[in-house]
Amino acid sequence: MQINLKGDIVILDEAHNIEDICRDAASVDLRDDNLAIAAYDCKNVWCKCRDRDQDIYYENVSCKCRNRDRDIYITIQTYLTDIVKFLGTLDAKQNVSINDYWLGAEFLVLLDMNNIGSSRFPAFHNASKEAIQNFEKIKQDPKPDKTIRVISRDTKKILEHLSFSMQMLTSDISVNDYRVCVVESIEPSGKKKIPKNVWISTKRSLRTMKLLCMNPATVFAPLARTVRSVILASGTLTPITSFQSELGTQFPHIVNPDHVVSKEQIYVRCIPRGPNGKTLMANYENVNSWNFQDELGSLVLQVCDAVPYGVLCFFSSYIARDKILSRWESNGTWNKLMELKKTFVEPKENKDLPAVMTEYRNVIEESSSKSFRETSGAILFAVFRGKVAEGIDFSDNEARCVLAVGIPYKKMDEVSMKMDYNNSNKSKGFLSGSEWYTVNAFRALNQALGRCIRHKNDWGAVLLVDARLQNQHRINYLPKWIKTKWLPDGNYNLQTELEDFIAIQIARERGEKCVTAV
């Protein structure tokens, strides 16, 4: 954002994802066709014009360009072209595994061997800075000289990304914080065409050089050193154990206050078994079994029968959710569910979500006009880390219960790389790979749980569906407001407890006294 933050106080709200955001900000994807087009753009800038009929170049004597400026764009053009040619010589794969990645230092050796690494980067970097300055100067001029050519905005972005990534790779401090791979893919339809005389490795496929940052401190630590104070704030920072090591910053003040609502307004229970007594452990193997899917279906029916208005149900992934919902459609659970509540499913595309949310809220608003004993409401099936779990406010009747199915451990090659990185850098204070893995999963779980309680007068039930959460070690990763209301496992009647809890809350809202059965 090009803001001078020296001596300022920076407050980052919703900071529970700051580690991932910093790693993403420091990671770069560079496609060979975009690099080639940027090179072509620079060739057009250095004072030559193309004869469109003969496809040749000639000196444009009317262009106001000094020799030094021409050298700048020639330097950039040749470097980008050589990078593209280098990518064309590498073995690339469509499906990349952890074994297909280079360590940052290993990839730098490859760049040096092809004369596009440490020796040539400084000249490219200096030339890019000047080209970007020329671009900014022209764009800021209210009456720019139209005879002066500059790079396009897309080329400016390419130069910034490539310069940053090469700075990281050629730095002794940060080179080992990166993993690099080259991925091959088919050219997507509808994209802008590459000019005929632009060189790329093949006409049918594209190659992307991915530089993945493993250490969020690469971005965050320089910020923390610059400002007077940096404050991370979120309703779900728990677990907090990874922040200091991952961000390379000491936080001398850690505040973990009580929740804004009273304990009586929250019902929390781990659900290790379903209504039929079958164990509910939402690991990968069980989630794919019919026994688990059918028992979970019975539990959801029970909850929807007991809880009025809105219910949110979160799954670990779209694949797991869709597999379970498909089973419910075939075994009759879905039809029974639709008799109890209007059903909604979080779409995978963000653009489709507003329409779903509008209809969901309309159903809740309509049901809110009825008595809680006769209303139906709606249930929304979503995923951890999705738009619903991360950024949408469900207050009052929009979420009277949250069902969290399982613990959202990520299964990705980049996660495996990050775990390996942490294990290799434990001496620097990083959490072990397995500990980081667990913290990452529970932070996503805790964020979803927070959808239920949105203000001091709100109330709701939180049900964590997984027998693994009976383990005290795992309970310690949950937020304070959940742990302080945690009900011990034992003999209980979930439907009765939910109905009593809801009756008490409705009576409290009405200012009435409510006597429940013992």
UniProtKB/TrEMBL annotation:
Compartment(s) where it occurs, according to its Swiss-Prot or TrEMBL record: Nucleus
Keywords for this protein: 4Fe-4S, ATP-binding, DNA damage, DNA repair, Helicase, Hydrolase, Iron, Iron-sulfur, Isomerase, Metal-binding, Nucleotide-binding, Nucleus
Top-level lineage group: Eukaryota
SMART domains noted in UniProt: HELICc2
GO CC term, one of those recorded: nucleus
One protein family per Pfam: Helicase_C_2
Main location: nucleus
EC code(s) of this entry: 5.6.2.3
Residue ranges of the TM segments: none
Cofactor(s) for this UniProt protein: [4Fe-4S] cluster
GO MF annotations, alphabetized: 4 iron, 4 sulfur cluster binding; 5'-3' DNA helicase activity; ATP binding; DNA binding; hydrolase activity, acting on acid anhydrides, in phosphorus-containing anhydrides; metal ion binding
Annotated family: Belongs to the DEAD box helicase family. DEAH subfamily.
Entries under NCBIfam families matching the protein: rad3
Protein name in UniProt: DNA 5'-3' helicase
Lineage: Eukaryota, Metazoa, Ecdysozoa, Arthropoda, Hexapoda
